[in-house]
């Protein structure tokens, strides 16, 4: 874990910014869509800082129920609230001397935002149920997939906290905005999973790579990682990489995504190729849809999914086609 892979200018710029800010003790705000590598970059900031030998503590603010978040951040004393059976240290105390990575910082509820601001400014706080002020030395790296500026404008995020976090913003572009990274990432994950599963993959077919480069990756690098893991599992040992392309070419999320960014991946091309893929599969099966020999099985789709795709694309059985 830890290597940031990619050859694009966009990623190069991100890494350059990381190299500049890491040795300072400044707060860093990492933005980018889900799966773009925000945590990976946060860890890189820690690794390249003077705190590298101290602890890196992570907290996903969106994953903790609001009522528990305060205690997760600042800790509590025994008896501070019902269920607080013993003293517990919060993440700020655990990260003392090191780095605290707050993921999904945009999800911090308004009532906690002043407390977070205070610990950022003064490096001091109290555990829940205690009047004793504690001092810490923590470097904060925060991340969000939301537009914090918009949340500020909507009155959902305090502007003073926003400016405090926004001292050094690092934006990681979506993978479809840096397609040059795809081949290197594919080779990286093939090597990783081939080693993990004890398999040898000799070749990645060029047409597979082209399809992967053209796909819009709504789930970004995480989606690519999972697809390659599945592909390595599916590939014969010593053979070529067998990517279940139908999974991605036919995915609704991909098509929805292209709707929003026509300049990046022409919708017509992908839809046309999907339509053509389905038509060929149907022709090949004599327009049988369900069953083990049907087009749905061949395409790796549920029968109902295929039927709804056909309807959407106006694909109907030609008059002279063989009978089901
Ligand atoms: N440039 C990269 N090189 C190698 N691996 C990467 C790269 N970017 C992301 N990954 C991998 O992709 C996966 C998702 O990355 P990560 O968890 O850092 O994304 P994230 O932006 O923090 O996601 P989320 O917003 O959902 O928390 C991880 O397994 C990570 O190691």
Give a verbal description of the structure.
It is a single chain. Helix 8 crosses helix 10 (220-234). This protein has helices at residues 9-21, 38-47, 66-74, 91-94, 113-122, 148-153, 159-165, 181-196, 206-214, 220-234, 245-249, 252-260, 267-284, 295-299, 303-312; strands at 28-31, 56-60, 75-76, 88-89, 99-103, 124-126, 133-135, 139-144, 169-171. The chain folds into three domains: 9-173, P-loop containing nucleotide triphosphate hydrolases (Rossmann fold); 176-251, Helicase, Ruva Protein, domain 3, CATH 1.10.8; 266-324, Arc Repressor Mutant, subunit A (Orthogonal Bundle). Strand 6 (124-126) and strand 7 (133-135) form a beta hairpin. By secondary structure, the protein is α/β, with parallel strands linked by helices. The strands form three sheets. Strands 2-5-8-1-9 form a five-stranded parallel β-sheet. The longest helix has 18 residues, at 267-284. The structure holds adenosine-5'-triphosphate. Residues 4-6, 32, 34-40, 103, 145, 221-222, 225 line the site of adenosine-5'-triphosphate.
Secondary-structure element string:
HEHEHEEHEHEEEHHEHHHHHHHH
Q: What hetero molecules are bound to the protein chains? A: adenosine-5'-triphosphate
Major sheet details = 5 strands, parallel
What's the N-to-C terminus distance? Answer: 52 Å
The H-level CATH homologous superfamily of the largest domain, spelled out, is P-loop containing nucleotide triphosphate hydrolases
* Average of per-residue pLDDT values: 88
> Which oligomeric form is depicted?
single chain
CATH topology of the largest domain: Rossmann fold
**Fraction of residues in β-strands:** 5-15%
Total of domains:
3
- At CATH level 2, the architecture of the largest domain is 3-Layer(aba) Sandwich
As a percent range, the share of helical residues equals: 40-55%
SSE class: alpha/beta
Total number of helices:
15
Contiguous uncertain segments of 5+ residues: 255-268
Principal-axes geometry comes out as elongated
| Strands, count | 9
Give the class-level CATH name of the largest domain.
Alpha Beta
The radius of gyration computed from the alpha-carbon positions, rounded to a whole number of angstroms, is 25 Å
Q: What spatial order of strands do you see in the largest sheet? A: 2-5-8-1-9
């Amino acid at each position: 874990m830890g290597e940031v892979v990619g050859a694009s200018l966009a990623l190069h710029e991100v890494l350059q910014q990381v190299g500049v800010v890491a040795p300072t003790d400044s707060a860093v705000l990492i933005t980018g869509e889900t799966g773009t590598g925000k945590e990976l970059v946060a860890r890189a900031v820690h690794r390249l800082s003077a705190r590298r030998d101290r602890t890196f503590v992570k907290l996903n603010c969106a994953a903790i129920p609001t009522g528990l978040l305060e205690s997760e951040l600042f800790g509590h004393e025994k008896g501070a609230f019902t269920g607080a059976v013993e003293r517990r240290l919060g993440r700020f105390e655990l990260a003392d001397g090191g780095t605290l990575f707050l993921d999904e910082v945009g999800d911090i509820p308004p009532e906690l935002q002043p407390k977070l601001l205070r610990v950022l400014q003064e490096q001091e706080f109290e555990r829940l149920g205690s009047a004793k002020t504690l001092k810490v030395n923590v470097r904060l790296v925060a991340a969000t997939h939301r537009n914090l500026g918009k949340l500020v404008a909507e009155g959902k995020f305090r502007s003073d906290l926003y400016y405090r976090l926004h001292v050094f913003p690092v934006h990681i572009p979506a993978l479809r905005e840096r397609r040059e990274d795809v081949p290197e990432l594919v080779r990286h994950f093939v090597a990783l999973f081939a080693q993990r599963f004890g398999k040898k993959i000799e070749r990645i077919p060029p047409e597979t790579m082209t399809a992967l480069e053209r796909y819009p990756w709504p789930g970004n690098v995480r989606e690519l990682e999972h697809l390659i893991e599945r592909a390595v599992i599916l590939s014969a040992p010593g053979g070529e990489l067998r990517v279940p392309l139908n999974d991605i070419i036919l995915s609704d999320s991909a098509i929805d995504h292209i709707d929003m960014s026509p300049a990046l991946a022409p919708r017509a091309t992908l839809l046309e190729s999907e339509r053509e893929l389905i038509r060929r599969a149907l022709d090949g099966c004599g327009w049988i849809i369900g069953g083990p020999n049907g087009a749905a099985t061949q395409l790796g789709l549920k029968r109902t999914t295929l039927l709804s795709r056909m309807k959407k694309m106006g694909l109907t059985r030609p008059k002279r086609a063989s009978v089901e």
